[in-house]
Amino acid sequence: MRAMTESLTRQADSLTPEFIAEADELVSHYPVSKRSASLPLLHLWQNHFGFIDDSAMEWIAARLDLTPVNIIELVTFYPWFRREQAGKTIIRVCRTLACALAGSYEVKDKFCQAVGLNPDCEHHGFGHAPPTTADGKFSVEFVECLASCGSAPVALINDDLVENIKTSEIPSLVESYK
Amino acid sequence: MSETATPVAMVNVQVDGEWKQFPKGTRLIEACMKSGKFIPHYCYHPKLSTPGNCRMCLVETGRPKMTPDRQPVLGADGRPEIAWGPKPEISCAAEVAEGMGVRTSSPLVEECRKGVMEFLLINHPLDCPICDQAGECRLQEFSVEFGKGESRFREEKVKKPKRVDIGERIVLDDERCIMCSRCIRFMQEVAHDDVLGFLNRGSHTTLSVYPGKRLDNNYSLNTVDICPVGALTSKDFRFKMRVWFLKETQTIDVSCGTGCNIVIGSRENIVYRITPRENEEVNSCWMPDSHRMNFHYLHSDERLVSPLVKGEEAPSKWTRALAGAAEKLQGRDPAKTALIASARMTNEELFLARRLASALKIENFDVLLRPQKGDGFLISDDGNPNTGGAKLLGLATGKLSEIARRVESGEITALIVLGEDAVDCGISEGALKKLEALVFAGILANKTSPHASVVLPTSAWAEKRGTMINIKGRIQRLNQAIQPPGQARDDWEVLRDLVQAVGGSNGVYSIEEVFKVMASETPALQGLTISRVGDLGLQLSLPA
Question: In chain B, what's the furthest Cα-to-Cα distance?
Fold first, then answer.
């Protein structure tokens, strides 16, 4: 797996005072058990750095008086978290019932073709980044319900919800994110 | 029911049709077990928290039927009528409650167990013939007792890491793991070294250590004991012996003053492993790895196996060696003779060592103390297992440095060393060489034995019976697991014969008799016998 354990730079070495202040603020939301701040800190970290390296898990564990294994358990459980760099634009296609019935498998295949990925490439999480193009621009993956069944099929492109996707529009949609 | 006020409130629970009482707060599984109903379980462990994840302990439960004004409906027998729940419940996570009912072997419960077993075996490799846990595997046992006997699973099993070297003393097979999490909880809650966790949770759940970390804690082997399957195995023990061939002997650990209660697993005079034995007053269910592994020297090539008299044909006969020792020791100036005993000896041996000193009128005697830094848990600050006994029996006099000094200066010309190395006591080999008489009794050759006029090979702690007093003043019993090697003899017999040879008969013929005489002369042991000490020991009230 690419760069999962051996990255040359440690993310924790490049923390800014602003980032630490934000982390402290998140921890302060959980006066009863600091452990509850694990997920908020992981989100903060991934949003900031793009992925979560070993130094991140160690830093978060130390910040919350936990051991790193408590954090890696979460990182490998939630498919959202990844221990390696994903594409600059991440296309997340919903595959839960309504979207699946509305053709989301075809939609995902089309997205893969449009960005130049093998549509058969499987992805199960466990800390891996979703399949990513060689130029690092795009990642495409299936996700579970995006809570927009009425406008199926839907996809989340970075933070934009795209609804009622028609396969014919996919190439131009991808083009707009290049 | 009981009319006296009890400190803990009792609740009435119906177990398989019989009403019983349990203290409030009892876990339902414990209530069932106390009633003699075995509940199969994997993740539940009495000393750990309850995650409730294996589902093996499902039982049918019911709560009392209530009238509209929340009063229990009473049946013809005056007992509450029970409204049985539609679904089974895990008994490890439920607490007993007033008027509760439980069925531990109904058709539904049996069906549940079959289902859980089938699920647990779906991804199991079924490699029992080569698995070290075979014979003491809960998965095997419950398959026989509660399983379906066949699987309907036709799909591919999930592949997981095998033979993972996760620690200095432990190997992990993730395919055998049933994710009970006992090891994780032990490391968190008891060892306080949270290195284990579940990665990739879901169909691919994998027990693992954090990358770069190791399960090297000095209590790590306890995870092997509590692992209900063959996922965690001991590097030291695996593939050495099938467990069903092991003879189990209940005894105590002698590596420090705690005196952890243990079971020795041996076969044909070879010790293969040591596991902790539950004793709430001493070590709960645990023991340190360093102590558990501290038995290989029993089978060392350095063991002394036959008596020796310097300058005579070797090996010597016991009768000759004992007579030789007596010749060397008798008729000397007692002021020029000293005895060094060991706080690793049993009470019986120390008592006889004291007698030997009296018979020779020796006043210079002491034991070697071993203060050490304990770990605040089961390794005590005392490296000797029986300092309590040495103190109680008057052997610990504090004269050791004085004795060493006078041996060095040549004032002391005869020395008896029992189970210690005189060099450890501050006596140089040069001074030992110059002694006119040096009688050494012990199990291993050391720096003292080559200089001894008489060497008397004796028995190690796994090779004899006896008692010791731990750091908290608890008298505990050693039991014999294996025979001593070669011609080595039980220490107490050697000491008795020495006492007899130098001072005449004292007529003790069994270790029980030695204990009896010792108890009659020692107020703190009054009324005790070796059998009364029992497998769990007894707390003594020792003089301050």
Answer: 98
